[in-house]
Structures are given as C-alpha cells and as structure tokens.
Amino acid sequence: MQTKRTIFPNKLLPYALLAPQLAVTLIFFIWPAAQAVKSSFEREDPFGFRTTFIWFENYTRLFSEPGYLNSLTKTAIFAVSVTLLSMSLALLLAVAVNRVLKSNRTYTTLLVWPYAVAPVVVGILWWFMFNPTIGIAPYMLRGLGIDWNHRVDGNQAMILVVIAASWKQISYNFLFFVAGLQSVPQSLNEAAAIDGAGPFKRFWTIVFPLLSPTTFFLLIVNINYAMFDTFGLIDATTNGGPNQATNILVYKVYADGFLGLNIGSSAAQSVVLMLIVIALTAIQFRYIERRVQY
Amino acid sequence: MVENRPWLSFLTHLVLIVGVVVVVFPVYLAFIASTHGSGDFMRGLVPLLPGPHMLENYGRMLTQGISTAGAPPVSIMLMNSTIIAIVIAVGKIAISLLSAYAIVFFKFPFRLLAFWIIFITLMLPVEVRIIPTFAVVANLGLLNSYVGLTLPLIASATATFLFRQFFLTVPDELMEAARVDGAGPMKFFRDILLPLSRTNIAALFVILFIYGWVQYLWPLLVTTDSRYYTVVMGIKRLAATADSEPLWNLVMASVILAMLPPVLVVIFMQRLFVKGLVDTEK
C-alpha cells in the first residue's frame, strides 16, 4: 500500500494515533460481529444456562422457514422497485436540469434537500398523506374508484413504502447524475447534432452509454440503501405488515431478535445480512478500480 | 444547448416543476397540518391551506411536548440531537484524521492489518449486528448516556479513506521542508496538514452532521430514559399514539422542527454538502 516517499521515523507514535479508531472498531464492530457469527452456530436453552454447538442448524431452519423466504422475496421486490423508481426519476430530473442554463441552481436546491430528512420522518410524512381516514391520497384515489387501505392490503403497503423510500433517494441519485452529465464532453453532443441526431437519439446513443459508470455505481448504492437504511421508514409506516407484506430483512432481524428474543435465528439472519453487505461492497470497490480507466 | 427547440425547453421546465412539486408536497402538507387546531382533522380530509394555530402548536411542542404520549418537550430532544450529531461528526473526523495520518506518513509493522480492520467497518452497519452490539454497550453500562449514543457510531472507514486520499496528494516537499526546519510529526500535523485539510473537514462535517442527526435504530435501542431521546426517535413515539388520538397538528409541528436543522444545513451549505457527498463515495 502507498505511503509517502519520506516518512517520519517514530516507532510508537503511529500506534498511538491509530489507537482510538481501532479501539472503537474492535469493541463496537468486530467483537459484536464475531459474537453474531458465533451464536449463529449455537443453540441456547430457554433459561440461558448452557449453549450447544449445532453447526448449521440455525441456517437450515432459517431457510426452510416460510416467513424468512417471504422476507427475502419482499426485500428483493422492495430493493429493485426503489432502485428503478428513484433512479429513473432522478435521471429524468438531472437531464432536465442539465439543459436549463439560467435557473439550474434554484432547481437543484429545491430538489436535493430530502437527503437530509431522516427515514423515519419520511415514513411519517407519507403515512400522513396516505392515511386511510384523513389522508389526501386515499381521498383522491377514491375518486378514481380505488379503495386505499394499506393497513389491510399488502400490495398497497408495499407501494406506499416503495414510494416513500424512492422519494428520499431521488436527491442523492440526482446529484450524482448531474455530476455524471457534466463530465460528458459537449463536443460529442454537438458533433451528433450536426450529423442530424435529435435530442432523444443523442441521449440514448451518446449520453446514456457514457453515464454507465455512474449508473452502475448508483445501482449498487441504491440496493444498499433500500436494504439497510430503510429500517426507520418501515418502522414508521407499516411495521412490516400487514401480514408480513413489507417485512424486509433488516426489519425482520430486529423484530425477531429484539422483540421476539430468538437469539440463534436472529444471529443467523445477521450473518446472512453481513454476507450481502460484503458482496455489495466488494462489487462496488471492484467497479471503482475499473472506473479509473474509463 | 446545442440547438434551439422551444417545445423541448418547455418540456424541460415542466418536468422540473412537476419534480419540485412532488418533492415539496409531502412537506407542504405537513406544514399546513401543523398550523391547524386538532379539531380540523375530524372532517375526513386534511386541510390544504394554512390555519391560525401555528404559533400555539409550535410553542406547545417546544415547551411542553405531549406527556400522555411519553414525549418530552421538543426543545430538549432538539438539543440532544444537536449534541449527538456534533459529537458524532467531530469524533469521526478527529479519529479518522489521526488514523489516516498514521497510515500515510509512517511505516510500521501491521500497517496493512490496521487498514483492513478499519475497512471492515464499512461492511458492518449497525443493522446487521444489533443484538451483540447492544449487549456490549449494556455490559459497559453505557445505556441511557451520551457516550453510549455516540461512541459506538464514531468509527469511520469513509472518513479515513477520504483523508488518506487527500494526504497522498500533499506534496512530499512540504514534509521534507518541515523536517529540515526541525518540526516533529505532531507539529507538522497541526501546523501544516490540518490547515490544508480545512475544506475537506468542512465538507465532511456537513455530511456527518446529517448522518448523526438522522440516526434512528441506535438511539431507539440504547435509550429508555426520555431525557436522552433524540428528536427523530421521539417523533416516532408521538406518531404511534397520534393514530388513536388525533394530534396530527402537534405531530406535524414536531416533524417540521425535526427536519429543519439538517435541511437548512443542506440548503445553506450546498456547495460543501455536494463536495462532501461526492468525495465520500470515491
């Protein structure tokens, strides 16, 4: 790994400098994670007196449990929908802002602030809008003949959390798409225009392919966001219900472990989640290595 | 702009205006709700224009809270959130500056190992290790304390990488010159490296302040004493009771109060915010 050509000769100082960060990391990150891995292979008797090592039993049980398989499916649906919805809306807005010359800073300011809104608060805002008794959205939907009640209808609950989660993430995607669009050379666009390509053709054949590094990066970040950062949103809107319809993995691991006190199963779920984050991070870093050559 | 197409310009502005309306509308609705009396929510549809009770609602939430819902005054929770967000941001920046400095400017055994240990924190968000982390904090007796709320979140791989990246671009000559002039490592760090990192620190502070402010799961786990509630988690408790007892105006007043500080930070420090966001993802 890279260092400076010249370095300071001190022997002990670097350890002292690293100590605070390493202490926090070891005590609050590595040790608990190791504990989770350990207890995922164990079973604790109901009174907590003894634990037995049971190999992969927690995992085999987990993957044969319909509730967990349902949660996996719901997570996949949720993550894919949030990613597609928020990325496509953000791309549309970014392309539009990129075409505007004068007022683009105003538009940008008005579009980016939801980044700073906490997921729980996002949940409450949309829950209020879609509240079956007084919300404005159900009122309008009734006019279209749709009876909205996400407390009963699982699909509607999923639609609600997808919309709310995407709303928050638009700002983030928008900023990265704008940055990506600004690095597309204007000369290419002009050359294509001279050759007679219209704005839509230019977008799909020149701009969009050149944006692919940004798009790919955002794809990973958004999946990560939808899987891990939406806990508060689910907690504020649906609590995983109705009937498990929005019980995504992070919510289930909390509900089973903290409220249901099923330590073995919760630990196994934690380990599965860790593997997912590790995979996503690995993909992200591999891709960043490549982006340099683009 | 390559060519002039009036209908396309019209479409562009239309897309943006619709986008802004969609983004702003939920918050507009919440603001309107926060200006009404609680009786206005009985009639089946939320009001769409401001009402006369704004000061009353905000004043009540800031100074009294809703005792039946177990929610302390919002002013206390706002102060807690501010303290926690600032401690997390400053803490993360401080320990990351030090570790990046050690990794870039010194050679020592286990340097690579230290780097990897820090790197691993990226892959272990609190959500995937809830119970064991809670157990550690409980065993250390840190439940219901500012230390317990902040310290476990303070490790930061992203900040360390950012500073490492930046330190690698600092010319070697600066350090050689400092050494020739007799400056020791800590003097070089304080008098040369820190001033050079000013913009990076500021940009990172904006991002990390927001990160600290929006924390929800962790405060929810480690606080049971309402004196330590942060505003983001306090609101959830309010909203949970609002369903049975319609206090929408008061809930929405606290929602607005909880959003305002970080949103203002983004709006007024937009340049730093964008820089911080883009930098931390590299």
Automatic annotation (TrEMBL), chain A:
InterPro entries, sorted? MetI-like (IPR000515), MetI-like_sf (IPR035906), UgpAE/MalFG_permease (IPR050809)
Q: Which GO terms describe its biological process?
A: transmembrane transport
Q: Which GO terms describe its cellular component?
A: plasma membrane
Database matches in Pfam families: BPD_transp_1
How does the protein's chain sit in the membrane according to the entry? Multi-pass membrane protein
Q: What domain of life?
A: Bacteria
Cellular compartment(s): Cell inner membrane; Cell membrane
- Coarsely, its chief localization is membrane
Keyword Disulfide bond set for record = no
TM segment ranges:
12-34, 76-98, 110-130, 157-181, 202-223, 267-288
Q: Which NCBIfam families match?
A: PRK10561.1 (NF007852)
Q: What does this protein do?
A: Part of the ABC transporter complex UgpBAEC involved in sn-glycerol-3-phosphate (G3P) import. Probably responsible for the translocation of the substrate across the membrane.
Family of the protein in this entry = Belongs to the binding-protein-dependent transport system permease family.
Assembly, per entry: The complex is composed of two ATP-binding proteins (UgpC), two transmembrane proteins (UgpA and UgpE) and a solute-binding protein (UgpB).
What is the protein name given in its UniProt record?
Answer: sn-glycerol-3-phosphate transport system permease protein UgpA
Q: Please name the source species.
A: Devosia marina
Q: Which gene encodes it?
A: ugpA
From TrEMBL, chain B:
For this protein, the record's InterPro entries field holds: MetI-like, MetI-like_sf
Q: Which GO terms describe its biological process?
A: transmembrane transport
Q: Give the transmembrane region(s).
A: 7-33, 83-106, 113-137, 143-163, 200-218, 247-268
Q: Which domain of life does this protein belong to?
A: Bacteria
- Which Pfam families does the UniProt record give? BPD_transp_1
Give the membrane topology, semicolon-separated if more than one: Multi-pass membrane protein
Question: What SUPFAM superfamilies does this protein map onto?
Answer: MetI-like (SSF161098)
**Which cell locations does it reside in?**
Cell inner membrane; Cell membrane
GO CC, any one term: plasma membrane
Quote the Gene3D superfamilies the UniProt record gives. Answer: MetI-like
Q: Which UniProt keywords apply?
A: Cell inner membrane, Cell membrane, Membrane, Transmembrane, Transmembrane helix, Transport
Q: Does the keyword Cell inner membrane apply?
A: yes
Primary localization class, coarse = membrane
Please report the stretch or stretches of sequence annotated as the ABC transmembrane type-1 domain.
78-269
Which protein family is it in? Belongs to the binding-protein-dependent transport system permease family.
Assembly and oligomerization: The complex is composed of two ATP-binding proteins (UgpC), two transmembrane proteins (UgpA and UgpE) and a solute-binding protein (UgpB).
Chain's role:
Part of the ABC transporter complex UgpBAEC involved in sn-glycerol-3-phosphate (G3P) import. Probably responsible for the translocation of the substrate across the membrane.
Report the protein name in the record: sn-glycerol-3-phosphate transport system permease protein UgpE
Q: Which organism is it from?
A: Devosia marina
Gene of this entry: ugpE
